[in-house]
Amino acid sequence: MRVSVFGAGYVGLVTGAVLADLGHHVTLIEVSEEKIALINQRRSPIFEEGLESLLARSIDQGRLSITNDAESVVGSSEVIFIAVGTPPLPDGEADLRYVRQAALAIGRGMHGHPRQVIVNKATVPIGSANLVEVWVQDGYREVHGRAPSSEWYTVASNPEFLREGTAIFDTLYPDRIVLGADEAWAIDRLQELYRPILEQSFEPPPESPRPNGVTSVPVVVTDRISSEMIKYAANAFLATKISFANEIANISERVGADIVQVMRGIGLDQRIGGRFLNAGIGWGGSCFGKDMAALTVTAEEYGYQPRLLHATQDVNREQRLLVIKRLQEALKPVKGRRIAVWGVAFKPGTDDLRDAPSLTIIEELLRLGARVRVYDPIALDNLRRLRPDLEVEFADSAEDALDGADALILATEWPSFAEIPLATIADRLTRGIVIDGRNFWDPEAARQAGLQYRGIGR
Ligand code: UDX
């Protein structure tokens, strides 16, 4: 199938590369010359496990290309994905400027053959498909002076649920595919596009072997609005699960319970499920915060106060600063103390700093007058580039961050941190204080190593 994808960002790149690898002919449409140049050199503009080799293979086999000339390619595409950024505006609402530009370009390039499915892949506010329709018409009208026939195209919603770090795996082996459209022919077209995934009939790429037991993928066919809502509801539920774990952690530590045991005890109940119940400094990343804010704004626009959504966000906001309270309890004044921070990425496996809890913690440490020395295996370059305002020292290694520090805060649970013996941490820290924001270490082992150790909720 001929497919074009607006936006060579996270979602667009992964979707485009996977669809090309499955045998479709994909053109990425991108405005940034820098990204185009990188991709043409078979290099990925973002860090994502396995993406670079997938891109290179698809480009070499002639199934994937990239251009900035939208109008020349969109006209011949059977499926057009809009996967551009929708950054939050100051009030939390999503900025649809790039979606509009894409939709206008689609309208300008449209000529009725083939019939086209325009798919919103970007997470857009509920009801945005209607806007895309209007913008497509505007684009066509600019060129032809009249509206296009409504027979020629339809706008569908097909949200992605991919996690950074496992995006290719999540695209090939999703828990479900959600297709929202008001026209049966559009649903048929998208089912055809995804058939290799739905039926698991493709040869798995070497980097992403098929997990045992995955023989097919369920599809949820629904109307457009419900599909848009599914994306927000999924992220809101996951964020709520984490905030719930954090709230129970806060009660657990007051009564003397261990949150890790408590969550294991509830997670084995199949109605609850054990994932996304890790207590700590809370959630961050490009999606949860933005989507929670957008869903809250939508609810309020319709005169509904979403109390649970507010509570989930409130718990998360406070949770980030809990490690500072712990630090103050152990160290008393933080002013003039040297604090090591391990991990700045919002989670392991990525160099992404968007809405990272570590940044809130570092800002607060600096505000309190601490000297902060940070280490992250891959995200330090981004920290240097994106937050030059943060006056922190950059360490060359995890051990190096500890030298001369009074205390260590762990903000991201990179697996490589487990390779450093607790005894080494105890030796290097002048006061041996460890505040574990991700319940990464075993408290007993840490104490035996001579550390003054505090986790979250235990
Ligand atoms: C998320 C959704 O999982 C994905 O489906 C959606 O498409 C985009 O948003 P992502 O942002 O990549 O994906 O990260 P995810 O793995 O979900 O983690 C989000 C945040 O929650 C991270 O900061 C992580 O550290 C935190 N988290 C996760 C917890 O604090 N506890 C947990 O138990 C799980």
TrEMBL record:
Main EC class the enzyme belongs to: oxidoreductase
SMART domains per record: UDPG_MGDP_dh_C
Reactions listed under catalytic activity: UDP-alpha-D-glucose + 2 NAD(+) + H2O = UDP-alpha-D-glucuronate + 2 NADH + 3 H(+)
Pfam families reported for this sequence: UDPG_MGDP_dh, UDPG_MGDP_dh_C, UDPG_MGDP_dh_N
Positions contributing to NAD(+) binding: K35, T86, T123, E164, K290, R354
Keywords of this entry: NAD, Oxidoreductase
GO molecular function: NAD binding; UDP-glucose 6-dehydrogenase activity
GO terms under biological process: polysaccharide biosynthetic process; UDP-glucuronate biosynthetic process
Gene3D superfamilies, per database record: Cytochrome c1, transmembrane anchor, C-terminal, NAD(P)-binding Rossmann-like Domain
Organism superkingdom: Bacteria
Ranges of residues in domain UDP-glucose/GDP-mannose dehydrogenase C-terminal: 340-443
Binding of substrate, residues: F161, L162, R163, E164, K231, F276, L277, N278, A279, G280, G284, K347
Active-site residues, Swiss-Prot/TrEMBL: C287
EC number from the UniProt entry: 1.1.1.22
Stated name of the protein: UDP-glucose 6-dehydrogenase
